[in-house]
UniProtKB/TrEMBL annotation:
Keyword Membrane: yes
Protein name: Cytochrome b5 heme-binding domain-containing protein
GO cellular component: membrane
Keywords: Fatty acid biosynthesis, Fatty acid metabolism, Lipid biosynthesis, Lipid metabolism, Membrane, Transmembrane, Transmembrane helix
Residue ranges constituting the Cytochrome b5 heme-binding domain according to the UniProt record: 5-83
MF annotations from Gene Ontology: oxidoreductase activity, acting on paired donors, with oxidation of a pair of donors resulting in the reduction of molecular oxygen to two molecules of water
Lineage of origin: Eukaryota, Metazoa, Chordata, Craniata, Vertebrata
Pfam families: Cyt-b5 (PF00173), FA_desaturase (PF00487)
One biological process term in Gene Ontology: unsaturated fatty acid biosynthetic process
This protein's record includes keyword RNA-binding: no
Transmembrane segments: 119-140, 146-166, 254-276, 296-315
Biological source species: Naja naja (Indian cobra)
Pathway recorded for this protein: Lipid metabolism; polyunsaturated fatty acid biosynthesis
Length: 438
């Protein structure tokens, strides 16, 4: 006979957090022990552990395509369920808000907004390949003088940026209905077209989506505090503790040196190789090698070694500027703090903002100007973001949640402004007399 089911309270569950030897989480009132499973989790150990001790129903729904298949893997992990007198989510969360969002999710599914237009993504891929070929033909036809050289670098930088948005689509499983097809083509786009590993992107990016702007859970914040002081709360904490790894009151100035121009060519360029070798992910490494072979062989017929290396460095710098400005304008100016275990909607709206829609903004950002909608529905194809935006805005108005959308240039300047404000806050906290150690 089956043993009697075990019943738990939220107070019991929250003690089994990511810092505890045993880790539990809740999905649809069912309690699962992920203490051993988290290391085998396909999305990575950290992303599932970030919800240990918490309700993971909404992220579970947001990230998985075939939920019935995933539940078969969860069955051996089931240890009980919430007691009848316990709410379906933590008592600190707004019941009406959580239920309204889950109703919105059901509406989105009924409207077919999670279904993709394959032609859209095919045309996106073709325009990337066309730009890539045009870059080579430009040097072949016009020669290697400065102007055609710079045009080719700009075209190749554009290829890298646009391929970055496209791999992002496949990585989020938003193109095909089957996860395996998304995974396979993801490896081609990020590996062969960009020279980066899909495994690294999955490990890094899904943590960001699970807990955006949550320090020690969102890896995009790893630059705090070694390079930058981020957010008002963390900056005060840093100042009070008398921490000064960098002159943070000048960070809005040195951001132009250590941020946009340096991230890809001087950090990610070597780190992605370290990542795949350390984890012995030889399939990803093989895909990455095909990118470098293709690039250096095809351009070696046209350029000498010095010019070839210069072209590669220049395209990475262009890509890096594009990537940093677009990705950080939606998050750095927003609230940054430790994980407060907020409901899904509130957490994402607190950490993300939008940039106004236009054809240019959609193209240059890969539709990540709709960052709010993307974070709420990460598997939604990007061509549907504008359709769900009015529904999200309406819900925000109903519950008094701020929905931010701004012009593109304002988004860029807000990055610098927020760094300046955080630096000033740190400086004041660092130099307050009552905080000075005796």
């Amino acid at each position: 006979m089956d043993p009697s089911p075990r019943f738990f309270s939220w107070d019991e569950i929250k003690s089994y957090s990511s810092r505890a030897p045993e880790r539990w989480l809740v999905i649809d009132r069912k309690v699962y022990d992920i203490s051993r499973f988290h290391k085998r989790h396909p999305g990575g150990s950290r992303v599932i552990s970030h919800y240990a001790g918490q309700d993971a129903t909404d992220p579970f729904t947001a990230f998985h395509l075939d939920k019935n298949l995933v539940r078969t893997y969860l069955k051996p992990l089931l240890i009980g369920e919430l007691a009848a007198d316990q709410p379906s989510f933590e008592p600190n969360k707004n019941k009406e808000l959580v239920e309204d969002f889950r109703e919105l999710r059901a509406t989105v599914e009924k409207m077919g907004l999670l279904n993709s237009n394959h032609l859209f993504f095919l045309l996106s891929l073709l325009h990337i390949l066309l730009l890539d070929v045009s870059a080579w033909l430009n040097v072949w036809y016009f020669g290697t003088s400065l102007v055609p050289f710079l045009i080719t670098a700009l075209l190749l930088g554009t290829v890298q940026a646009q391929a970055g948005w496209l791999q992002h689509d496949f990585g989020h499983l938003s193109v095909f209905g089957k996860s395996k097809w998304n995974h396979w083509i993801h490896k081609f786009v990020i590996g062969h077209l960009k020279g980066a590993p899909a495994s690294w992107w999955n490990h890094w990016h899904f943590q960001h989506h699970a807990k955006p702007n949550c320090f020690r859970k969102d890896p995009d914040l790893n630059m705090h505090p070694l390079l930058f002081a981020l957010g008002k709360i963390l900056s005060v904490e840093l100042g009070i503790k008398k921490k000064k790894f960098m002159p943070y009151n000048h960070q809005h100035k040195y951001f132009f040196l250590l941020g946009p121009p340096a991230l890809v060519p001087f950090y990610l360029q070597w780190y992605v190789f370290y990542f795949v070798v350390q984890r012995k992910n030889w399939v990803d490494l093989a895909w990455m090698v095909t990118f470098y072979l293709r690039f250096f062989i095809t351009y070696s017929f046209l350029l000498d070694l010095k010019s070839l290396l210069g072209l590669f460095l220049l395209l990475r710098i262009i890509e890096s500027h594009w990537f940093v400005w677009v990705t950080q304008m939606n998050h750095i100016p927003m609230a940054i703090d430790y994980d407060k275990n907020m409901d899904w909607l509130s957490m994402q709206l607190q950490a993300t903002c939008n940039v106004n829609q236009s054809f240019f903004n959609d193209w240059v950002t890969g539709h990540l100007n709709f960052q709010i909608e993307h974070h709420l529905f990460p598997t939604m194809p990007r061509h549907n973001f504008w359709k769900v935006a009015p529904l999200v805005k309406s819900m925000c108005v109903k519950h008094g949640i701020e929905y931010q959308s701004k012009p593109l240039f304002t988004g860029f300047t807000d990055i610098v402004h927020s760094l300046k404000v955080a630096g000033e806050i740190w400086f004041k906290a660092y130099h307050e007399p009552e905080n000075t150690k005796s």
